[in-house]
Amino acid sequence: MSDRICVGAIAGAYGVHGDVRLKSFTADPLAIADYVPLTSEDGAHSFSFEISRPVKGGFAARFAGVQTKEQADALRGTRLYANRDQLPSLPDDEFYHADLIGLEVVDTGGEVLGRVKSVQNHGAGDLLEIHGPGLKTTVLLPFTREAVPTVDLTAGRIVADPPEGVF
């Protein structure tokens, strides 16, 4: 498990006065402001900000030290991380995406299906992107109780009961 969790990203400038378009990956999108200061992926940069208003696809935010559109554009694509100990603890049946990535996936008979490459959500629920040596392409497995009855973070594996024809 990672000590830091990605909670948002900067999508670029919003306007000409240095505001940025901020995408939040927290369950309550406004909660991203509760974890300030956030850091860059490598931990080299720290960011403090205030959310000014909601905008399409996220929020307009004023970052400390960013005063021009060019400075805001230079931050485009920056992923923002919070320390795990700042985040709320989760119930037993909920997981941070970062905890799922890299886990081995086995079927109910114990046969290895692959590893979780990413967790995606296109609006209808989470999907586990699974890749492995026996797969020609990655497989998207719905992250539901029916398809994924067991997630064992301690053992580092997921037991899957995939729908017919997925693998």
Explain this structure to me?
It contains two helices and 13 strands. The chain is mainly beta. It folds into two domains: 4-86, RimM (Elongation Factor Tu (Ef-tu), domain 3, Beta Barrel), CATH 2.40.30.60; 97-160, PRC-barrel domain (SH3 type barrels), CATH 2.30.30.240. A hairpin with a 2-residue loop joins strand 5 (49-55) and strand 6 (58-63). It is elongated and about 60 Å long. The protein starts with a strand and ends in a 7-residue tail after the last strand. The relative contact order is 0.16. The model has no long low-confidence stretch (mean pLDDT 92).
Gross geometry: elongated
Number of DSSP E strands: 13
Please give the share of residues in helix.
Answer: under 10%
User: Which class of the largest domain in CATH terms?
Assistant: Mainly Beta
Largest sheet geometry: 6 strands, mixed
What percent of residues are in strands? 35-45%
**What distance lies between the first and last C-alpha atoms, to the nearest angstrom?**
27 Å
Structural class: mainly beta
**Total count of helical runs of at least 4 residues:** 2
Which strand order do you get reading across the main beta sheet? 11-10-9-8-13-12
Task: Give the overall pLDDT as a whole number.
Answer: 92
Integer-rounded radius of gyration: 18 Å
CATH architecture designation of the largest domain: Beta Barrel
- Secondary-structure element series: EEEEEEHEHEEEEEE
- Poorly predicted runs are none
Overall number of domains = 2
CATH-assigned homologous superfamily of the largest domain: RimM
Assign the CATH topology of the largest domain: Elongation Factor Tu (Ef-tu), domain 3
